[in-house]
Design brief:
By secondary structure, the chain is an alpha+beta fold. The chain has one domain. Helices cover about 35% and strands about 25% of the residues. It has a twelve-stranded antiparallel beta sheet with strand order 4-5-6-7-3-2-1-8-9-10-12-11. A hairpin with a 4-residue loop joins strand 6 and strand 7. Helix 9 packs across helix 10. The longest helix has 22 residues.
């Protein structure tokens, strides 16, 4: 099975959510602000330090939330992937029901700092849930091969181009690890340097009460960077000042609290970026109030955008630009609206 595709789907979904925010926002979750805040996810203890990107999702909490229960389409999520369908049929595992939490750690080329490990691959995925080890082992022996590494059984699956392998290993009956590459050595390297600096994990501690969060170091921007086709030296400089981005979301009763934080190089940069975001929001509201826009946009989409532009609260704290947003269940109707078109 192309398991890497499953991890990519999770990452892509979070990325799309971030883009929908249309700016650099953060949820503003300090531990004192979050009801029933939990410590850093236990799965993080298995992740090597120094990742440039960390993604976490507590799928069990999301499924149990009142916000999720109000989704219009309560049918199973369609996965247009025959390999995944074969995996489900062979093992009985369905990520929508059996996957409780997942962590994706990534080290894109040129983005990691403090990492001199020659074994470290680009991505490691850790998942917790309900797995039938015997069925998964049988499937692995049919689709890949079994290897023995560091005293563990490691299932190797060929990559799409069949030029390399991805490694899958059970950590225990409820946790599984997927490592990009033919060796699980990158997964074990965290034990060798427990004191290593880990900026992404330090930022994850700030949003430990969130059900979903994604933290990433911002890659270098090209000189022709022009969001929305707008070319501006001032905007480019402000964008380049953002070093880290943190997206987080948490169900709160029937609603969903969401935000993203942009961490700038200086407090001055943060203030300038806040002013730019406020100006963009002003232009956005003016455009949304246009009769032509209202006529061409369906009511659900219009209501969601109006809520974002009207109620989102932009603020700064030291070098951070943040905004808090609260979505009602109406946002879950957007998918249904697009299907109807």
């Amino acid at each position: 099975m192309q398991r890497w595709k499953k991890a990519a789907l999770i990452g892509a979904g979070l990325t799309a959510f971030a883009i929908a925010g249309a700016a650099l926002y953060r949820i503003g979750f300090r531990r004192s602000d979050v009801a029933n805040a939990s410590p850093a996810p236990a799965l993080f203890s298995e992740v090597p330090s120094g990742a440039a990107t960390l993604i976490y999702a507590d799928l069990a909490a999301i499924r149990a939330s009142a916000f999720y229960q109000q989704r219009p389409d309560k049918g199973p999520i369609a996965m247009p992937d025959r390999d995944y369908a074969d995996f489900v049929q062979s093992t009985g595992f369905d990520f929508e029901k059996d996957l409780d939490s997942v962590v994706v750690a990534s080290w894109p080329a040129g983005m990691s700092q403090g990492q001199n490990n020659p074994h470290l691959r680009e991505t490691i995925v850790l998942a917790e849930g309900r797995f039938d080890r015997r069925k998964i082992r049988d499937y692995a022996l049919r689709e890949g091969k079994l290897d023995r590494q560091e005293g563990r059984d490691v299932f190797l699956f060929p990559t799409d181009d069949h030029k390399s392998w991805n490694s899958v290993s059970f950590l225990d009956d409820r946790r599984i690890a997927i490592v990009q590459g033919p060796s699980i050595a990158p997964l074990l390297d965290h034990q060798n340097d427990p004191t290593a600096s880990d900026p992404a994990r330090e930022r994850a501690a700030r949003v430990a009460g969130a059900a979903v969060f994604a933290i990433s170091r911002v890659p270098p921007l090209p000189d022709n960077f022009s969001p929305g086709g707008v070319q501006s030296a001032q905007l480019l400089n402000l964008a380049r000042s953002v070093q880290w981005v943190t997206l987080a979301a948490r169900p709160d009763g029937n609603d969903l609290r969401v935000s993203l934080e942009g961490e700038c190089q200086t407090a001055t940069d943060a203030l300038e970026l806040e002013a730019a975001l406020e100006m963009l929001r002003m232009f956005g509201r003016a455009g949304l109030e246009s009769p032509k826009t209202q006529q061409s946009m369906d009511p659900v989409t219009y209501g969601v955008l109006e809520n974002i532009l009207k109620n989102a609260g932009v603020s700064t704290s030291a070098q951070q630009v943040r905004i808090q947003m609260e979505f009602t269940p109406d946002i879950l109707k957007l998918g249904e609206t697009q299907k109807a078109k």
